[in-house]
Amino acid sequence: MITLEINVLPHGRLLANSELQPTNLYRTIFIRQNYLHCRNHDTPVVKASGRELSYIILIAMIMCYAMTFLLISRPTTFNCAIKRTGIGFAFSCLYAALLVKTNRIARIFSHCSVQRPMCISPVSQIFLTALLAGLQLFGSLIWLFIVPSGTKHYYPTRGQVVLKCNVPDHHFLYSLAYDAALIVLCTVYAIKTRKVPENFNETRFIGFTMYTTCVLWLSWIFFFFGTGSDFQIQTTSLCISISMSSNVALACIFLPKIWIILFEKHKNAHRQDGIFTKRFESYDNEHIRERSTYTIYYLVIRATEEKFTQKLLLQHFIFRS
């Protein structure tokens, strides 16, 4: 008698990973409530990091964590459709936001004119992120229209039947190729902006995120293709890769700011006196000598008129790194 085996892990390897997902969800909600809560919404640390893109990144993390539950559920036509579109879209939202953020900083610090660079406002940042993520979703929907979702029985051995989605595993990687391109581009920009002034060192944390993500994805590809037709190991490696990619971004990007908000509140206070002195002290003497008198005068005038916060300083600071 042949037994129908559903593609879940009965021996607990994936079950142990799934039990961590509620903790990850609660952790993300905690970040959202403390980091972007109304009490901290207008503080310098939150403003400097870009509140709008932070919302998008956190929502993308929640989607990534939710995808793990979908992967270990019983395959159905609906689940397979969400799997083919949701995982790639969640990753595209996450890494598109990081790419837009690093690209923005790179353009600001490589800008030679006193004119403000284009497309650095919050609205334009959201639009660019939505455009990049929308391309992934549009491609996935076209693929779903060409190859409709469904389930199919596979026979790894003569005495085993496995119920899986009707699309081969290597086809699933097509939807992640776009996300891999975003990761590569984001890593390149993180390397380019690694020497920005100390006050704008968020790109360094983004760089740590992207370096670790590249290692995780390379490891996942090795396990995914190196295990043959063992769907249990493939599903396990995919779930762990999704969770760890989100965990890395959560730890490297948000936890340093959460630490400041909760335990070093004096660093998150609005200070007017000596703000420019502290900013210029982070540059070495060689860089300070290169600054023109007109550029310094321009910054001081804009700071006086617009009451610079750290976020506005990042938007208008046109010095070369």
From TrEMBL:
Pfam families: 7tm_3
CC per GO annotation: membrane
Residue intervals of the G-protein coupled receptors family 3 profile domain: 39-277
GO molecular function, one term: G protein-coupled receptor activity
UniProt topology in membrane: Multi-pass membrane protein
Entry keyword Transmembrane helix: yes
Protein's name in the database: G-protein coupled receptors family 3 profile domain-containing protein
Transmembrane segments: 53-73, 85-102, 123-146, 172-191, 203-225, 231-255
Keyword terms: Glycoprotein, Membrane, Transmembrane, Transmembrane helix
Highest taxon in the source lineage: Eukaryota
Compartment(s): Membrane
InterPro entries given in the database record: GPCR_3, GPCR_3_C, GPCR_3_mtglu_rcpt, mGluR
